[in-house]
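Comment thread on ticket #2218

A.B. wrote:
> Attaching the input chain for the structure job we discussed in standup.
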Amino acid sequence: MRPKSTNRDLPPRMIRVRKTLKSGAEWVAYYYNGRDAEGRRVKLPLGQDLNEAKRQWAKLECQDIPADTGLLRFIFERYEKEIVPAKAPGTQRDNLGSLKFLRKVFDSAPIDS
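C.D. wrote:
> Ran it. Output below, let me know if you need it in another format.
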């Protein structure tokens, strides 16, 4: 199976559908892209919220439910893993020091607030 070319942030067999409405707003929904007993493709709706869709996906795949990605902790971890290594050594030290203090206060804060 070749790697996904899009939606790499989603688990296997989970797809994101984006549509632009007449108003110009973007509608996003998540689907499980599985197979039935005869081998035909089945697209099951998982919802419009990413966290809830991942929970539904985990139930369908019989996997552990993923950690809640709606918290700033997830953003901090991703920033530290993906962005900080691409910076200069001095900037890396500064960013990691800043993250240490930010995590004390905002680690469990929801992203939406």
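A.B. wrote:
> Thanks. Noting for the ticket: Residues 14-61 form one domain.
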